[in-house]
Specification:
Elements (H helix, E strand, L loop, with lengths): L2 H4 L1 H10 L7 E3 L6 E4 L4 E11 L10 H18 L3 E11 L5 H17 L3 E9 L4 E11 L14 E5 L17 H10 L4 E5 L3 H12 L1 E6 L12 H4 L7 E6 L1 H10 L6 E9 L4 E4 L5 E3 L9
Parallel strand pairs: 4-5, 9-12
Antiparallel strand pairs: 1-2, 2-3, 3-6, 4-6, 7-10, 7-11, 8-10, 9-11, 12-13
Amino acid sequence: MKLKDLGEFNFINRINRAIKLSGRVIKGIGDDAAVLRYTKDKYMLFTADMLVEGKHFHKCDKAVLVGKKALSCNISDIAAMGGSPKFAVISVGFPGSLDLKYADELYKGIRKSADSFKVDLVGGDTVGSGKIIINIALIGEVEKENLTLRSGAKENDAIFVTGNIGGSIKLKHLNFTPRLEEARFLVKNFKINSMIDASDGFLADLGHILEESDKGAAILEKAIPVSKNASRFDSAIRDGEDFELIFTLPERQADRLENAWLFKTRLSRIGQICNGREGLSLVRKSGKSEKIKPAGFTHF
């Protein structure tokens, strides 16, 4: 069997089944970051993301934006857990023929993102490779009462999403702002039952919440904030690398959240969590409801 026959997430599940964790681990594989025992009041968050030339960016892209994206992906993961980023290590594979200016600009982008979100760059590794590869591991922390997992969605929760969905290929995938400030506001002021960052695609990532929570959902086409850069609705909800927050909270808190929202970032209430047996359904603008699969981007 080839990896492409098994699929990315089946491969991840295959790895997960073979791993035995110690009592130091609160949450391992299956969320935006691992959750580890840390202090009396806080958990440690640990995440990693890898970018590969030709897959996540191209050589013709501005190096400073590639670097910015490399760290921002990780910060977005920490945001989705309700936490704050702290320390990062950067490992890169560079061809020896790479122009030094490109490498300098790439690290400039990483530093810009680190400075914006108060992340200390504390080490890493450099190797020779046939193409540019960037792997960043990031440590963060979260107050125990603010930890938010994918697995906490409850029946009748309201579903929200920040920003716009789709069309990220037109620069947003390289030049986005992790919704860290928004996430911290949410977990400090509301009972956020589940949250994820939309990197694999809106439908796929909502699907991760539903799978981990053993729930279903009904979402409204007319309420989903599709980007003007998206080619059409059905592709927008499957496109990856939006890096927005998808989250759920009790229905009774939804109106208060909408009234209290103090950010320029768009906030949209797009549906409701339901019983797991009902699966995922999309209510079209016509009023017709149809069952859909939470498909999105996969690496193989």
